[in-house]
Design a protein that fits this description.
The chain has 2 domains: 18-257, P-loop containing nucleotide triphosphate hydrolases (Rossmann fold, 3-Layer(aba) Sandwich); 264-475, no CATH class. Helix 13 crosses helix 14 (312-333), helix 18 (412-419) packs across helix 20 and helix 19 (425-432) packs across helix 20 (443-459). The protein has 20 helices and 12 strands. The protein is elongated, with a radius of gyration of 29 Å. It has helices at residues 18-23, 31-45, 60-69, 84-91, 117-126, 152-155, 161-165, 180-183, 199-204, 206-209, 246-251, 264-274, 285-300, 312-333, 347-352, 366-386, 392-396, 412-419, 425-432, 443-459, and strands spanning 74-77, 98-102, 132-136, 141-145, 157-159, 176-178, 187-192, 227-233, 254-257, 404-407, 464-468, 471-475. Strands 4-7-8-1-9 form a 5-stranded parallel β-sheet. A hairpin with a 2-residue loop joins strand 11 (464-468) and strand 12 (471-475). By secondary structure, the protein is of the alpha/beta class.
Length: 476
């Protein structure tokens, strides 16, 4: 499966032959029955059926569960970055943890019902002594990113010229080199970006979805497949590279529409979950909120092509960039406990611009549009985090002409020194660390709270700000 799938250890004393498997009382279940029964079992136990999936609880997941309980092959249709592949990968967790297969079978035949010629021959010759191996559910998941150059042979299979040279006849089933789909027999196969498959390759999937078998080249090869097929696709009104041909769509049992997280809290949880922030600088919750609000504002902007979608990767990359900016500051200034601050946000505009498709009329204004939306997101976060806080003492610092300098290379302690003793600072810190991120809060969190307050005062036109050589100078 994915690169971060944990290693698994084969349990001891599992049956190693067909006879031992029968004696142990093992029952053979088709894949779709296996998924259905395991899903129902998790429902009854109140367990998480799709771990790590955020924002779909009341919309996508009930529809997907109905499709799986009905035994349907499924198309997940939605814009980029909506977690379609992540969701498909979690379906594999509904397979049995370990499943028996005929030893050395290229298509994972079940020992009770082998379908390939080699396994049938071995079963007839060895009987109850047929060797059995055990396959973990991680190894029963296959995935292919559809591309225009994907061939029928890649998915289904083709004649193996080496086997022909070894003496196999052209009509011999054992002269076939199996493609990805047969090699995921008795498992779950994911086809990402299905419309990108050429029409002739999509036609080759007809038999897989309807008759549950495959055909290779010019001769009939009856090879019943036991596979759950789940595909992902972008909406056809945006994906101009191709389309899903109508007869293939008709063969999928269910189409499930995905969406972006409907709630801000879900967007924040998703970004936190997916961003690679381990062992890096601390990122306070208010900056995660700014990134989540920024992402949602970009999605809603009339300057952005709404057919393309704004991926969750947009906010994830932004949060990782903010953390990287704080790490850079710590390395250059010697900060002992780096904490990301508002001054780290402007760096994301250039970084993320390539992830957005703008309307034609906005050419040349891309940076301006994103910077404006980032300021709006920061202002909204200031109101939600520090709204109602007494900032009189901070704003009065500027009435006598005082200035406070901040910036990407201004350390937290330096910022606090320039502000000086501040009544009410403890309340600001408590609001910024309300989720228990720092106990007790270090100077970095204090600086993050003060800088959010400064930026909020500026965005609400209570103080001014000048940008000089990548430094922000707050003044009256």
């Amino acid at each position: 499966m994915s690169a971060d799938t944990p290693a698994t250890t084969l349990p001891e004393n599992l049956p190693a032959t067909l006879g031992a498997l029968r004696a142990a009382g093992h029952e053979h279940r088709p894949v779709k029955v296996e998924v259905r029964e395991n899903l129902l079992s998790r429902m009854r136990a109140g367990e998480d059926r799709f771990p790590g999936v955020v924002g779909f609880d009341d919309t996508v997941l009930p529809r997907l569960e109905r499709a799986l309980l009905a035994g349907h092959d499924v198309i997940l249709l939605g814009e980029r970055g909506q977690g379609k592949t992540r969701l498909i990968r979690t379906i594999a967790s509904l397979l049995d943890e370990w499943s028996p297969v005929v030893a050395d079978c290229p298509i994972n035949d079940h020992p009770y019902a082998p379908v390939c010629a080699g396994c049938r021959r071995a079963a007839a010759a060895k009987g109850d002594d047929l060797p059995v191996e055990w396959l973990h559910r991680n190894d029963r998941y296959g995935e292919k990113l559809s591309t225009p150059d994907t061939a029928v042979g890649d998915l289904i299979g083709d004649i193996d010229p080496v086997k022909l040279a070894e003496g196999y006849s052209l009509g011999d089933p054992e002269s076939v080199h199996y493609g990805l789909l047969p090699r995921t027999n008795r498992g779950l196969f994911c086809l990402n970006e299905l419309p990108d498959l050429a029409a002739r390759v999509q036609v080759a999937l007809f038999n897989v979805l309807e008759e549950r078998d495959i055909q290779i080249r010019g001769y009939a090869l009856r090879l019943p497949l036991d596979t759950l097929l789940v595909a992902s696709a972008n909406p056809e009104d945006y994906t101009n590279r191709g389309r899903i041909i109508t007869p293939l769509k008709d063969r999928f049992g269910a189409e499930v529409r995905t969406h972006y997280p409907p709630e801000l809290a879900q967007e924040m949880a998703l970004v936190r979950q997916e961003a690679a922030l381990d062992h890096g600088p601390a990122v306070p919750a208010h900056l995660v909120e700014v990134l989540a609000r920024f992402t949602r504002l970009v999605r809603e902007s009339s300057s952005v092509d709404d057919r393309s979608g704004i991926s969750a990767r947009f906010a994830i990359a932004g949060l990782e960039t903010v953390a990287a900016s704080a790490a850079r500051r710590a390395a250059l200034t010697g900060e002992e406990h780096p904490v990301a601050r508002v001054c780290d946000l402007p760096s994301i505009v250039d970084t993320l611009q390539g992830k957005v498709e703008f309307e034609i009329g906005e050419e040349g204004r891309e940076t301006e549009v994103l910077a404006h939306l980032l300021r709006r997101a920061t202002a909204d976060t200031f109101r939600s985090t520090l709204g109602g806080a007494d900032l009189t003492a901070l704003s009065e610092r500027f009435t006598d002409g005082a200035t406070v300098e901040s910036g990407e290379l201004v350390g937290g302690e330096e910022l606090l020194r320039s502000v000086g003793p501040l009544p009410g600072l403890s309340e600001l810190i408590a609001r910024v660390t309300s989720d228990g991120q720092a106990d007790p809060p270090n100077p970095g969190y204090a600086a993050a709270a003060v800088e959010l307050a400064l930026e909020g005062l500026y965005l609400n036109r209570r103080i001014s700000k000048d940008i000089v050589d990548d430094r922000s100078i707050y003044r009256t």
